[in-house]
Amino acid sequence: MPYSSVFLSDIVKYFDLEVVYDSGDIEERRIRVADVTRPGLQLAGYYDHFGPDRIQMVGNMEHAYLEHLTSAERKRSLLALFNKEIPALIITRNHEAHTEMMQAAAEAKVPILRTEQATSDFSSALVKYLKNELAPRVSMHGVLVEVNGEGILILGESGVGKSETALEIVKRGHRLIADDQVEIRKVSETTLLGSAPDVIKHLIEIRGIGILDVKELYGVSSVKAQESIDFVINLELWDEKKTYDRLGLTEETTEILGIKVPSLTIPVGPGRNLAIIVEAAAINYRVKKMGYNAAQDLVSRVFPGGTQLT
Length: 310
What we know:
- By secondary structure, this protein is α/β, with parallel strands linked by helices.
- It is built from ten helices and 17 strands.
- The protein is 31% helix and 28% strand.
- An eight-stranded mixed sheet has the order 14-11-10-8-9-15-17-16. It has a five-stranded mixed sheet with strand order 2-7-6-5-4. Strands 1-3 form a two-stranded antiparallel ribbon.
- Strand 8 (137-147) and strand 9 form a beta hairpin.
- The relative contact order is 0.11.
- The mean pLDDT is 90.
């Protein structure tokens, strides 16, 4: 499910913003749009297609324009903006807030915040933060690990060996992102980010042993806060009646939040070293992205004329 809003107070804390005018309700104010507006045209009186639900940002150009107005014009311009019930106004580059700006903010009860950062830099960082926090998300039962730079989401029924596989992968020098519950966010039309809920971050459950803190056991290099989900491996108990792909010619995908992620189904049976198999699958996936497919290469050797196996 998507998160519908972010508290303005969380933005203030995250970016260490100075509160120039406190409207008294910063803790309750919510931001629901992952974008910001520089209100140049609005300060000049043009409000067609204006989005009042966005954070407004005043930089060099807007500040210079306000400087050229008379006191009465400045008050009228800012009050018109604030009366649109904008969530907040952020001043960049440590510009001073005009007296008329403070008066208009007090009348309309709109908080004014300030940062010393350049407008373009801060705007980019804020939009990135909002897109991440407001992204559609879902929680899935599984394990997320990073293997050779690839984010591998391991899915399967309880008891199939996901956590044990993840532990062995960590021992082989790779990193754990989440065990048991993976929070997945859709940060763009092609990108999924996975992380662990705060309460179980860095923890892994091994039946017969209990809860292990991977960070404490194997060091900070064995864990990571979040990772993109590049590949999905579905573990299932070996079914003698089922035919499994032996060449790797079948292209599988797993759909998560509307994005189709390349995937494999790996049967779990006695004697199979799942950690090595997952590691090999991750490397093979990376090689495929670079343009080489071993299965297709085999087909081309066996059938030089171009006939494909079906």
